[in-house]
Design a protein that fits this description.
The chain is α+β, with helices and mostly antiparallel strands. The chain is built from ten helices and twelve strands. The longest helix has 21 residues, at 228-248.
Length: 355
């Protein structure tokens, strides 16, 4: 049975845990809000599921609790920050706020961040952007991570390199958050924990054999790039592009010896676009809504209707805000020891349960 919790109760619970781990109240609330937003949108591996790892990083001082990012470059319409291991969700939210303040004047604002602690679910940052009427492109990479192998190679090279995009449209935004690998590392870890196989053969073992066994990943294996066995060269090319945008533009990445010990630290690329800098807002919305409508109303291959990226996530977000958030069963199980340790009451689930 999957239990549901009030969104506000989950946010307050996570914020209190982060405060007990040493974060100031404002930063703790931002962290909690970002993780909750991921679950609201249905990204269950990178939402509340990541609270525990962030608590560990705070306690071990792998995450810096106080201070501000260092400004390395700033030309008004673009800036580069060194986060020096500040909490990922907090520092990225600060960059997003800064970009949203600047974009009405500049039309397009681009930002990079180096050495941010893990920023988790990219889509979780985008609802305020589309609600303000802007377009967003957000990606990140991890200099210390080698989990995805290029096509034709058995050696893992890239990190998962997620890419998120959002644009206002009609009843729901066009919104997606996808990795440049066939599956994300979070799903591999979840399958290993639960003793199950992956739905498809999206891994290679250390000898290059394709596999659905999550255990090969920890024995020198790798994840296939987007495109899989046949067309993985496309995913590898996209991975390289995103590492250029996030690492190379930020000036810190795979060529830096110190980056190899940076653990989960992310390199981030963020770009906000104000459509009104290019055309009337009504014209922009007319085009994006038409695209979504044509996609949604195209003929289905089977019994299920065709789904547009963002359609299900936006509907799920609205429903869970109204009716309660469905947490993946292991999440509260993992959070319980931290709640006991800090003496923080665990939110009570809503009475109704979902099969």
């Amino acid at each position: 049975m999957t239990k549901r919790y009030r969104a506000e109760a989950l946010k307050n619970f996570a914020a209190r845990l982060f405060q007990c781990a040493g974060l100031a109240e404002e930063r703790a609330e931002v962290m909690a809000g970002v993780f909750l937003e991921a679950d609201l949108l249905g990204f269950t591996t990178h939402g509340m599921n990541r609270v525990v790892s962030n608590l560990r990083w705070l306690e071990s001082n792998e995450t810096r609790r106080e201070g501000a990012p260092t400004v390395l470059a700033d030309r008004g319409n673009c800036f580069n920050w060194d986060a020096d291991f500040l909490p990922g969700p907090w520092v990225l939210r600060q960059a997003l706020i800064e970009a949203m303040q600047r974009v009405p004047d500049h039309g397009v604002v681009t930002a990079t961040i180096r050495r941010s602690q893990h920023i988790a679910c990219l889509a979780a940052y985008l609802p305020p952007v589309v609600e303000a009427g802007y377009v967003a492109i957000l990606t990140c990479s991890t200099p210390a991570e080698n989990t995805v192998s290029p096509q034709g190679s058995v050696d893992p090279l890239f990190s998962a390199n997620p890419l998120a995009f959002a644009a206002p449209a009609g009843e729901y935004p066009l919104l997606f958050d996808i990795s440049m690998s066939v599956t994300a590392g979070g799903y591999v870890a979840r399958a290993k924990r639960e003793g199950t196989k992956l739905p498809v053969k999206c891994l290679k073992d250390r000898d290059g054999n394709v596999s659905d066994d999550p255990n090969v990943f920890d024995s020198g294996g790798s994840i296939l790039p987007v495109g899989g066995v046949d067309h993985g060269y496309k995913g590898a090319a996209l991975s390289a592009m995103l590492e250029v945008l996030s690492m190379a533009l930020g000036g810190y990445g795979r060529d830096d010896a110190s980056a190899k010990g940076d653990g989960e630290a992310n390199s981030v690329f963020l770009q906000l676009i104000d459509p009104r800098a290019f055309c009337p807002r009504a014209d922009f919305l007319r085009q994006t809504a038409a695209l979504c409508n044509l996609w949604q109303n195209s003929r289905s291959e089977g019994c299920s209707p065709v789904r547009v990226p963002g359609q299900r996530a936006w509907a799920m977000r609205d429903k869970q805000l109204r009716e309660g958030v469905m947490l993946y069963p292991s999440i509260m199980e993992d959070l319980q020891p931290w709640a006991d340790r800090y003496g923080v009451p665990v939110p009570k689930p809503l009475t109704q349960e979902i099969n």
